[in-house]
Write a structure and sequence with these properties.
The complex is a heterodimer of chains A (about 425) and B (about 575). Chain A has 13 helices and 17 strands. In chain A, strand 3 and strand 4 form a beta hairpin. Chain A folds into three domains: about 70 residues, Ubiquitin-like (UB roll) (Roll), CATH 3.10.20.740; about 110 residues, Alpha-Beta Plaits (2-Layer Sandwich), CATH 3.30.70; about 170 residues, NADH:ubiquinone oxidoreductase-like, 20kDa subunit (Rossmann fold), CATH 3.40.50.700. Chain A is globular and about 75 Å long. The termini of chain B are far apart. Chain B has a six-stranded mixed beta sheet. A five-stranded mixed beta sheet of chain B has the order 2-3-1-4-5. A four-stranded parallel beta sheet of chain B has the order 9-8-7-10, with helices on both faces. By secondary structure, chain B is an alpha/beta fold. In chain B, helix 12 links the parallel strand 8 and strand 9. Classes of the chains: A alpha/beta (about 425), B alpha/beta (about 575). The complex binds flavin mononucleotide, iron/sulfur cluster (3 copies) and FE2/S2 (inorganic) cluster. One iron/sulfur cluster binds next to helix 3 of chain A.
């Protein structure tokens, strides 16, 4: 082939043709470059998400914007680049309001997928909890602005049959949203609307009555990573028996959670009998011990902090446990209860106690008493209040994930958490 | 009103003008206007809405018969913004970011309007009002209520040219005679003009210092017969007002530079992208363009060069800092949202309407014209060895002589601070918020491309100005002005804001400062355009250059495990329900 050039990715020489897209060529050669807005058929590429940032001939730049050419040298998997790309995905999560367990696209969502591939268990950034609308006005669609990552794909690709755009970015800065043209949307056929729903990488475009939901296990990103496992590395590491295991003490608590994580802890079924041979449970709802009687090795925290009592209990756990593990999304960043964080507390309480259909005639007060815990202005992540040592994502995390992590912490047993065990829903 | 009276654009390039016509007719853009524009262009209304909502000065709701835009830049903030704002509110009855009940006045904040030497300043119906105080505001509003038009009340804007180098070394601020550069053109071939520009080592004065000769040459190489010269007169960097003064004192000089560029690269059309904040300068520019046409400097066979035709028009912006970024500017010229383009093409390959385009700053064109007029030798005798020539600086803030300083490259910072009579300088901001800050004690730092390569703004702050307030003001600016297209800038500036709030509340630790630097660096590495890439600059520099200030702001680490968490603050919302 006369038209062959050689490019270098992470030191590896790769023969290819000139003028091809770097992300595509890398993928063909088993090198995964994360991307959220790259679609080979859109040219010029959208270049909005920046999740594909690599070092290209010494300069930082988006890989999706790069065409293969002689002399192209790319660094992809260096620690700083991996961290930078992960930071961008974290930023997108922090900026939107992504409640995966309640999302139609969960399991089929490109953003979530990137989180999984990067092993993102918590965000380094604060969640912004910006109040956004959900637009139910269009004829067929619902636009869930909380989930839009502004990739711009719908702006470019969703057109009416006579070529008019259905979407356009509106506003600017952190107020930027994809606006939808109600007239243009109304003339879309059902198929065109469903196609729009499917081309959105996240759950931002929905079509009324056309549920996306598929059973767990059958969704695109349930079972297997898109990364090719490095050759020679077994998928799952077996436990390395560490000899005679020392007896340890665990405490657990459910703060602003739903007890789902505790249910999940019990989900190892008979394995639990083995476990209690090795650990004592101190303060925990599992045994109903209400007060700490000793310093514990590990404290497992379910739920975030929505009340002054949660804060008090969490601080006590910090004092009484050598290691604190945030178990589940609520504990890690607020989770589903944090859906109220976009709305002022006053309005939440008025809605719940004063204006709701179930409030009694003549009921004019929100409960407030010195014996009641005070409700906080928003739901806080446990790590906002105390130092948290480890984070186990999931809503709830699977039982195997929880106990693999705990056994590792207690006895340094080595496990690998499988792709199928690392989930946000 | 019948739809037929609504002006409609014939193509996207006329959209901004049409939206301005609608906006000016009634003080806002109506649904009918949006419909008419969309129908005329054959596009969806949401696209028009997308454009309107991008620009600060377009309104979809009535914005007052007198629309007041009060500058909220940091210089204005320190010089009495809050007092002036309160005075406007009480005198007009308008709510902030809205109108008064009768709809007579609209009152809005706006980013720097290029009058930092005379703050607090405001635009009323795009006429400038400077050195405002409560008394002056009362007087102005009373007169407006009496029916006096804003134009006749507006302030005469002084140029405040404070310094030019001695010994006939001034390049910009020396006497100017229209045509002095253009008449030299016939002696040069287009290629020789580019050679001259290379010889004087002219670099872009819009802040990026890209070699101008190289840019012109790469455009000249393109075979497309239609090419454009665009003058970037968007001057949006807070604290910068040099282009204002250049355009006001010698508008012809800039136009001559554009003509020279057109000749050099083979372009026929020049466009001046003038920020809407400088609408009040437009009549003067219009007059100069007409004068040049009359003199034969614009039009056909310019300066007797057979077949060289070139003309210039003005495109008014509509309020968006990012439109100063050259590719965003091109989108804006095409009547689109001012989102920077990707780097897939250079503007010199595919710029305005996909044709090869040179975009240069006002000062760059002025410098090019002077190079023709004065010759390379003269230029090479000034400035620093690595950077010939002079630089126009706009100095503002805590100094007794704010204004324009034409300095030779290589002037020590200390000398500039002395010249502008900064009595107690502490924090010097170079090149505006997107630049960097320097402790004033570093007097030996040089204003030169090798050290402090200043794009044009120098803001001086005293020791009693709170650094955090400066940083917060800058962060607000970037958060508002980000085009919103890429993640790190759109979300990053928003995230930095949260962290700044934490510092302000005394809840931050040393670790938070380290994180701020790390996060800022992520934005710098990954943002799509210069806005996001420079937005964290000052923050990072401040953390590095003023460690003592931040150490004092760091909260107490407690027992190392519990964090600084303000439980009482978190309970206040609920405490309102206490019986
Ligand atoms: C956010 C942003 C704003 C900018 N604003 C301006 C501006 O107001 N005026 C200007 O001349 N250049 C501005 N620039 C620089 C332009 O992108 C471009 O480099 C310049 O116009 C090129 O002209 P020059 O080479 O003559 O400097 C800006 C760049 C960025 C990233
Ligand atoms: S599934 Fe995707 S779109 Fe839905 S909430 Fe999770 S990250 Fe957001
Ligand atoms: S709605 Fe979907 S396709 Fe459109 S910009 Fe948002 S995330 Fe991308
Ligand atoms: S860096 Fe900011 S202004 Fe530039 S493209 Fe990205 S969002 Fe837009
Ligand atoms: S995939 Fe490259 S910027 Fe989004």
């Amino acid at each position: 082939m006369a038209n062959t050039i050689t490019i270098k990715i992470d030191g590896r020489e790769i023969p290819t043709e000139p003028g091809r897209n770097l992300v595509t060529v890398a993928a063909e050669n088993g090198i995964f470059i994360p991307s959220l807005c790259f679609y080979p058929h859109i040219e010029p590429p959208l270049g909005t998400c920046r999740v594909c940032t690599c070092r290209i001939n010494g300069h930082f730049g988006p890989a999706c914007m790069e065409k293969t050419r002689e002399g192209l040298e790319v660094e992809v998997n260096t620690p700083d680049l991996t961290d930078t790309r992960k930071a961008l995905v974290e930023m997108i999560f922090a900026e939107g309001n992504h409640f995966c367990p309640a999302c139609e696209k969960s399991g089929d969502c490109d953003l979530q997928h990137m989180g999984y591939e990067m092993g993102m268990s918590k965000l380094r950034f604060p969640h912004l909890f910006k109040d956004r609308l959900i637009d139910f006005n269009p004829k067929r669609m619902v636009i869930e602005h909380n989930r839009c990552v502004k990739c711009r794909r719908c702006v470019e690709e969703v057109l009416t049959s006579d070529g008019r755009r259905v979407f356009s970015f509106c506003n600017r800065g952190n107020e930027t949203v994809v606006g939808i043209d109600y007239d243009a949307e109304a003339v879309l056929s059902e198929e065109q609307a469903v196609a729009a729903m499917h081309l959105c990488p996240t759950g931002a475009i929905l079509v009324k009555g056309k549920s996306l939901a598929r059973p767990f296990g059958d969704r695109r990103f349930d079972m297997e990573s898109s990364k090719i496992a490095a050759p020679g590395q077994p998928e799952e590491k077996e436990a390395q028996p560490a000899g005679e295991l020392e007896r340890k003490t665990i405490a657990t608590i459910s703060l602003a959670g739903c007890f789902g994580c505790h249910m999940s802890m019990l989900d190892i079924d008979l394995g639990f009998l083995d476990l209690i041979e090795l650990v004592d449970f101190n303060k925990s709802p599992l045994n109903d011990i209400k007060e700490f009687t000793k310093i514990c090795d590990v404290g497992l925290i379910e739920g975030g902090c929505c009340s002054s009592e949660n804060v008090e209990v969490l601080r006590e756990f910090r004092k009484k446990c050598k290691l604190l593990v945030a178990v589940g999304e609520c504990s890690i960043w607020g989770g589903l209860p944090a859906m109220r964080n976009m709305i002022p507390l006053e309005e939440c309480l008025e809605e719940a106690y004063l204006n709701s259909m179930s409030s009694e005639e003549g009921e004019f007060t929100v409960p407030y008493h010195e014996d009641l815990p005070k409700i906080l202005d928003k739901v806080y992540a446990c790590s906002d209040i105390v130092k948290i040592d480890y984070f186990i994502p999931g809503c709830p995390p699977t039982a195997t994930h929880i106990w693999k992590a705990v056994r590792n912490l207690l006895w340094n047993e080595q496990y690998s958490v499988l792709y199928s065990e690392f989930k946000y829903d | 009103m019948p739809t037929s009276t609504i002006p409609v654009p014939a193509s996207g390039t006329q959209l901004l003008d049409q939206l301005w016509a609608c906006q000016n007719a009634r003080g806002y853009i109506r649904d009918e206007d949006v419909e008419a524009c969309a129908a005329a262009l054959g596009i969806s209304e949401i696209e028009i809405e997308g454009v309107i909502s991008f620009y600060h000065f377009f309104h979809r709701r009535p914005a007052g018969r007198f629309t007041i835009y009060l500058n909220n830049s940091i210089v204005s903030e320190f010089k009495g913004f809050e007092r002036v704002k309160a005075a406007f509110e009480s005198a007009t009855g308008a709510v902030w970011n809205g109108t008064d009940p009768s709809g007579l006045f609209g009152l809005y904040p706006t980013a720097c309007i290029g009058l930092s030497d005379q703050e607090p300043a405001a635009l009323i119906n795009f006429q400038p009002f400077t050195n405002l105080n409560s008394l002056k505001v009362k007087g102005i509003v009373a007169q407006l209520k009496n029916g006096v038009p804003a134009e006749s009340l507006a302030d005469e804007i002084p140029d405040h040219i404070r310094y030019v180098p001695d010994g006939d070394k001034a390049i910009f601020f020396r006497p100017y005679h229209p045509g002095s550069a253009v008449v030299k053109l016939p002696a040069y071939s287009p290629g020789q003009v580019i050679d001259l520009i290379r010889q004087v080592r002219l670099t872009g004065r819009g802040g990026a210092f890209f070699p101008t000769g190289l840019k012109w040459e790469s455009c000249a190489r393109q075979t497309n017969p239609v090419k454009y010269i665009v003058c970037n007169a968007d001057e949006g960097e807070p604290g910068t007002f040099k282009d204002r003064v250049l355009m006001k004192t010698a508008p012809g000089l800039m136009i001559e530079g554009m003509i020279a560029a057109g000749y050099a690269v083979g372009a026929q059309q020049g466009i001046i992208y003038l920020r809407a904040e400088y609408t009040w300068l437009k009549p003067k520019l219009d007059k100069t363009i007409q004068q040049f046409r009359n003199l034969g400097y614009l039009g056909e066979d310019i300066a007797g060069i057979k077949g060289f035709q070139f003309d210039v028009r003005i495109q008014l912006g509509a309020g968006a800092y990012v439109c100063g970024e050259e590719t965003a500017l091109l989108n804006s010229l095409e009547g689109k949202r001012g989102e920077p383009r990707t780097k897939w093409f250079y503007p010199t390959e595919k710029g305005f309407l996909d044709c090869p385009t040179v975009v240069n700053n006002v000062e760059t064109f002025c410098a090019a014209a002077r190079a023709l007029e004065l010759g390379a030798e003269k230029i090479l005798q000034t400035g620093a060895p690595d950077a010939p020539g002079t630089k126009v600086l706009s100095v503002s803030g805590d100094c007794r002589l704010p204004g324009i300083y034409e300095v030779e490259w290589g002037m020590p910072l200390g000398k500039l601070l002395d010249l502008c009579q900064a009595d107690d300088p502490h924090f010097v901001q170079i090149s505006g918020p997107s630049g960097i800050c320097v402790p004033a004690a570093q007097r030996d730092r040089l204003i030169a491309p090798s050290d402090l390569s200043c794009g044009g703004a120098v803001m001086v702050f005293n020791a009693d100005r709170d650094i955090l307030r400066i940083l917060t003001n800058f962060n607000d600016f970037f958060k508002h002005e980000s085009c919103g297209v890429c993640t790190p800038c759109r979300a990053g500036n928003f995230i930095l804001q949260r962290k700044l709030e934490k510092i302000e509340k005394g809840l931050a630790y040393e670790d938070d400062f380290k994180e701020l630097i790390a996060w800022g660096n992520i934005m710098k590495k990954t943002s799509r355009c210069g806005l996001g890439r420079t937005a964290p600059n000052t923050l990072i520099a401040a953390l590095e250059q003023f460690p003592a200030y931040f150490a004092a702001k760091a909260g107490n680490k407690g027992d190392g495990l519990n964090k600084n968490f303000d439980l009482e603050q978190a309970e206040t919302a609920y405490d309102q329900f206490a019986p």
